[in-house]
Specification:
Shape: globular
Distance between the termini: 33 Å
Structural class: mainly alpha
Number of strands: 0
Helix content: over 70%
Number of domains: 2
Largest sheet: none
């Protein structure tokens, strides 16, 4: 169910684009994301910071796209989001000396501090990569190519999460070790 909930806004966006245009697809994405966040809120009782940021950016950039009738805004939203995530993780780690990943996930995953550091740096690099690749496709390709990239580009986060899982699995502390 969670996987369907995570992917349905982008699938509806893609379908609306194929059936109509980027402006219809943007409106559908905005509505689907609001619905997604409402369902998440009622299921979990709260929204994570990342979910709130995503919602705000989709509504902001979507509104600009529709009001100004300029698809560049919705196309650049992922670059802004990923860049902001990279900057926030980097500043938190190197300036504030805090590891946000460990703070958010430390209760669920028991990992050595050096592994948390590696994960934080990996996430910074991943976010910068995703910001750059989206920016490149948004700037140098057609809207059609960018929409296709948004759908098929999900291979990047899936691959990143799989590699991350393989990396941390030998370092996970089991319940027996922590007793």
């Amino acid at each position: 169910m969670k996987l369907v909930l995570d992917f349905f806004p982008i699938l509806l966006f893609f379908g609306a684009y194929k059936l109509a245009d980027i402006y219809t697809a943007t409106a559908v994405l905005m509505g689907a994301t609001v619905l997604q966040m409402l369902i998440t809120y009622f299921r979990e009782g709260k929204l994570q910071t990342m979910q709130k940021a995503t919602l705000v950016l989709i509504l902001l950039f979507g509104t600009l796209t529709l009001v100004l009738h300029d698809d560049r805004f919705i196309k650049w939203k992922p670059t802004v989001l990923y860049s902001a995530m990279a900057v926030a993780l980097a500043i938190a780690y190197w300036v504030a000396k805090k590891n946000f990943l460990q703070m958010m996930l430390g209760q669920q995953l028991q990992l050595p501090d050096r592994i948390w550091t590696h994960l934080n740096i990996a996430w910074i690099c991943y976010c910068l990569f995703m910001a750059a690749i989206n920016g490149y496709v948004a700037a140098y390709f057609t809207t059609e190519a960018w929409v296709n990239f948004k759908l098929w580009g999900y291979v990047f986060p899936i691959a990143f999460l799989v590699v991350q899982g393989l990396y941390i699995s030998p370092h996970l502390k089991s319940d027996e070790q922590s007793s």
